[in-house]
Amino acid sequence: MAVQSTPKTLKEKLGGRNIFLIGMMGSGKSQTGPVLAKMINYAFVDTDDVIEKASKQSISSIFEKDGEKVFRDVEKKVLKEISQHHSLVIATGGGLVTLPENWGILHQGIVIWLDLDLKRSIKRLESDKKKRPLLIGDDLVENFSQILESRKPIYLESDLRIEVEDQSPHEVATMIAKRLPSILIDPETQAELHTTEL
Fold it and tell me: Structure pTM?
């Protein structure tokens, strides 16, 4: 039987590297993040929350008043700022991955894609009270499908893809914690590899 990684050994293997949760709106990043952070003794940050607190306005207000480009610039600055810290689980906005320069930061940590299928995503968004600036319009399914299709190739750049169905945030966090060791190299082994390469 395989030896299970305990939260302590998992934290040691992570070596302080940040975990970035990416995925479409409604995929559960903000709900799963705090649970996962608690499991591995990390802190949790949500980029959208940081932006709203810093700008003292909602994401949809920024979109309405200043447009998407201004929002993406603010988001990029916030990501840069947050990534100066370590041992964080970071829930990112769905479109953060669309700026290539953000990937320079994301790849310094571990990128996990929460992949919720189209049908379930639509169901969640229909019952969600949160205003989604990119989904304003009559046809939610059409809008969402187009955004998903354009982002899918980008999401595939993640280190780990977690297919989410109807699990609770705790179950999704457990799935991540179980699968993380398979993509992690021990910091000591990494140091040895680095020395060998020099």
Answer: 0.84
Whether residue 3 is predicted with pLDDT greater than 50 in this model: the reply is no
> Do the bridges between strand 88-91 and strand 110-116 make them parallel or antiparallel, or are there none, so unpaired?
unpaired
Q: Are strands 19-22 and 110-116 parallel, antiparallel or unpaired?
A: parallel
Residue 57 Cα distances to 76, 88, 95, angstroms: 17, 24, 19
8, two tokens: 């302590």
Q: What is the pLDDT of residues 75-85, one digit of tens each?
A: 999 999 999 99
Beta bridge partners of 20: 90, 111
Say if residue 191's pLDDT is above 70.
no
